[in-house]
Known about the structure:
This protein is of the alpha/beta class. It has 13 helices and 9 strands. It is globular and about 65 Å long.
Amino acid sequence: MKVNILLSAYNGEKYIAEQIESLQSQTFSDWNLIVRDDGSRDKTAEIVEQFHEQDARIRLIKGENIGVIQSFFELVKTEEADFYFFCDQDDVWLENKLEIMLTEAKNHDNSKSVLYYSDLKVVDKDLNILNESMIRSQSHHANTELIQELTENTVTGCTSLINHALAQEWTDTDGIIMHDWWLALLASAIGELVYLDQATVLYRQHGDNVLGARTLSKRMGTWFHPQVWLAKYWWLITSSQAQAKKLLTLPDLSEGNKDLVSSYCTLLEKSVNQRKVILKKYNLKKNRSLHTRIFRFLIMSKLAYKENR
């Protein structure tokens, strides 16, 4: 069994050594770490090279700055493996993360596309725990079905494990909001999306996170600017529709899933009555009741939609 850990790094000199050390402390040790430096301007590459000199499992690829999605795509295509773990530069993995997830993978049919993911503990820059469960605090519950993932992603890339079958299905990055969401959509549409209800990562929050957890301060930043909030919400809806539309080209998509995806992607093109019927038929919603009410209100009213198209 070949296991590749894929790490896309960019100006990560502050935390990347601690992350790599957490990989070296894993109870499962038969892995390969492939680090792609995405055009860093600091000492990230030098730090990884130092680890490589001491550990043959670690390999560095130096590249131009192409962004996190494209960088992870290139990493997946760099070298074939049975399983691929996604890794961020600034987190810390709990020592049994690999063992837990690979043990779970043995219970599933990996001839079909499968994505496995877990919960996270949210921590500050010094690894002090801010929240024991990011899934429960941020998303209420984890998604395992396509209809859930269409409107809201609960998969965090740094907790994810994909098998080779799913890796082969990832053929481009056009129209993708984030690699973890797209791979979760793929898995739930034509294979299986599996959630492990335990934390395997210390998810570090600091000023340079690309995305990070939705903290109170981040939320408050939009509460007092409704026009910004509306623009972001409509961007999320229309971008998720464009992302989902890519699923319609899959030859293995069932007729039922095809109808669901098509209905979601064309929802805003329908009349008010048709939108109401589709929302009720598929019970399209968010993971939290308040977010569901907002989502459905915007779909039905199309408030500010034209201004943000």
